[in-house]
Specification:
Elements: H1 2-16, H2 21-28, H3 31-61, H4 66-85, H5 87-97, H6 101-113, H7 119-144, H8 155-174, H9 181-184, H10 189-223, H11 237-240, H12 242-266
């Protein structure tokens, strides 16, 4: 009965945003596994069908949706970086948006990448660009003007964390991450199907563990009101929240790979093809 009560606490408190120490304790209990294991699988299925919708949308357009989304995202992120380094720009955005400029500058790119077939690629590319710009400007400020914004050394590591894990999700789909293809191409079709399925089942189990544990870290950070060092009001849990979402997406990639493998098994083509890092999904 305690597990059911903790499960109810996790769900209701998370949806309402009323996080306190009792909720954190519920997250630390075994009830978290019963909540986040099905949530990971359900979320993975939803992400899978989101990609099918994005793929169909791309086919109707006749071109990749990134042709339209990337220029808009680039403009929005350029404005965001200008606001980060130039207080007058930030003040102008505050006045124009009613102090909701941060929400708009973050949510608009997120909404746009939902129309893309491979959102991980966009996340990785723009996280890298933002990191490079922050570090470059920080170096110029420090060694040329003898000033430096304090968050220029704390935001990039968080962005690197986001970039690394979403890059992992992309490489799972590309089958360039721990694929062992040299060994498996020597097996028969049934042997190849077995090991490919074994890989993806392990990825699903790993995702359940990662979603559960990173959710615990995220809610604990939220409860502790942890702020990113060098800032006044940028919360650390904003970055950590991307981790459970990333592993749900990774689980979707594992499901997508399994469906693709069974389709290939029924056909006559090769089961395992040469994978290329950065290739098309």
């Amino acid at each position: 009965m305690s597990i059911l009560a903790d499960m109810s606490t996790i769900v209701t408190a998370t949806l309402s945003g009323d996080i306190n120490f009792n909720v954190v304790k519920a997250y630390r209990s075994d009830a978290a596994w019963y909540v986040f294991a099905p949530l990971t699988l359900i979320g993975a299925v939803l992400f899978y069908y989101r990609e099918r919708l994005a793929e169909g949308f791309e086919q109707r357009l006749g071109v990749s949706t990134t042709k339209y989304t990337h220029p808009i995202i680039a403009i929005i992120l350029t404005i965001a970086l200008c606001a980060a380094f130039l207080p007058p720009v930030a003040e102008a955005l505050k006045s124009a948006t009613g102090d909701n400029h941060r929400l708009l500058l973050v949510m608009l790119p997120i909404l746009l990448i939902l129309f893309e077939r491979s959102p991980e690629r966009t996340i990785v590319v723009y996280c890298y660009i933002i990191m490079a710009v922050i570090i470059f400007v920080g170096v110029i400020q420090r060694f040329v003007f003898s000033v430096q914004v304090p968050w220029s050394t704390t935001i990039p590591p968080l962005l690197f964390m986001v970039m690394a894990w979403y890059g992992c999700a992309l490489n799972i789909r590309l089958r360039t991450h721990l694929s062992f293809s040299e060994f498996r191409t020597k097996l028969g079709r049934k042997g190849q199907l077995f090991w490919l399925t074994f890989d993806n089942v392990l990825w699903l189990l790993f995702c359940v563990i990662a979603v559960t544990t990173t959710s615990r870290v995220t809610v604990n950070t939220y409860d502790n009101f942890a702020i990113v060092l060098g800032t006044d009001d940028i919360m650390r849990w904003w970055f950590l929240l991307t981790m459970p979402l990333c592993f749900i997406l990774l689980a979707a990639r594992a499901i997508e790979n399994m469906i693709e493998d069974f389709t290939k098994f029924k056909g006559d083509g090769p089961m395992i093809e040469q994978a290329v890092i950065g290739g098309d999904t």
